[in-house]
Amino acid sequence: MHDYSVCGATIPCQECPKAVDNSIIYASHPRGFHLPAQKCEENIMIFLLKGEVLINSQEYAGTVLHAGEFILQAIGSKYEVLALTDAECVCYRFNQPEQFCEQRYKHIMAEVTPPLIFSPLKIIPELNYFLEASKSYLTEKRICRELLSFKRKELAFILGQFYSDYDLSMLVHPLSKYTSTFQYFVLQNHAKVKTVEELAQLGGYSTTTFRRIFNSVFHKPVYEWMMEKRKESIVYELRYTEATISEICYKYGFESLPHFSNFCKKNFGSSPRGLRQSHPA
User: Fold this and answer.
1) Is the pTM of the predicted complex or chain greater than 0.70?
2) Coil, strand, or helix at residue 91?
3) The pLDDT value given to residue 99
């Protein structure tokens, strides 16, 4: 009966509707394993249980991570890993920290200055108990959504209860830094492109990765957000600039004036000319 779920369900774990990809995973790598420099598609916390690995990133340039230590690499950042010995780790991948106090997050951002040189945090006994216990079933690679949710909350509790604001500043500030950087890129460049794919390419992301990062930062689908900004820009130009209706039409990628007029009537309740006459520049 090993093909059946440990929860008692009479279907294989792989077919269970609660089965999800593990966001908390266990990994084991031999000495010499190399993860080439790459941009993080998600935030990732690396908890090293055994061995030594070399981390190379802006925050941890040439840093040796020892067993009993952990770091965070924020979404959008670049990092490289080289196993100096056989190594085992538990990794937590996420878009947004789960169950982390918003007020404390803001306090750390505003009041706590992070160190000039980042160093790995120590895995305290309470966290080590969590990691070793998690490892025992993470190696099975079959975990349902409810269990993952509990474990994420437990991890957030441990970090919040047993680590100081100064310790957490090494997690919070990088998260905020890369979030702000991504926001700046999107706000500065979205008007230069016509499609999500073009914007992703401009930033050096795959479309899938770009959508994932965008959702975590802006909390809505990128296409929906771009359409809202496009509408806002069209209305602004019709009402407050001297650009001709034809110029605005073709600037925003419409194939013809009738097509542009239908778009305006559908979304704004008036034709381009009507919008312009109601708010002369």
Assistant:
1) no
2) strand
3) 58
